[in-house]
Amino acid sequence: MRRYSQLPGAGRQDTLADRVHRYRGVLLVVLAPLALVSLVLLLMPRAPAGAAQRPLGGGAGAAGGKKYAVIFDAGSSGSRVHVFCFDGNLDLVHIGTDIELFVQKKPGLSAYAQDPREAAQSLVSLIEKAKEVVPAELRDQTPVRVGATAGLRALGAGKSEEILQAVRDLLREKSSFKNQPDWVTVLDGTQEGAYEWVTINYLLGNLGKTYADTVGVVDLGGGSVQMAYAIPEKDAEKAPKPADGEESYVKKLFLKGTTYHLYVHSYLRYGLLAARAEILKAGNANGYSNCVLAGHQGQYKYGGNTFEASAAPSGSSFSECRADVVKALKVDEACTHMKCSFGGIWNGGGGAGQKNLFVASFFFDRAAEAGFINSNAAVAKVKPSDFEEAAKRACKLNVNDAQSSYPGVQKDNVPYICMDLVYQYTLLVDGFGVDPQQEMTLVKKVPYSDAFVEAAWPLGSAIEVASSS
Ligand SMILES: O=c1[nH]cnc2c1ncn2[C@@H]1O[C@H](COP(=O)(O)OP(=O)(O)O)[C@@H](O)[C@H]1O
Ligand SMILES: [Ca+2]
Question: Which atom of ligand 1 is least distant from the CA of 76?
Answer without folding.
Answer: 23
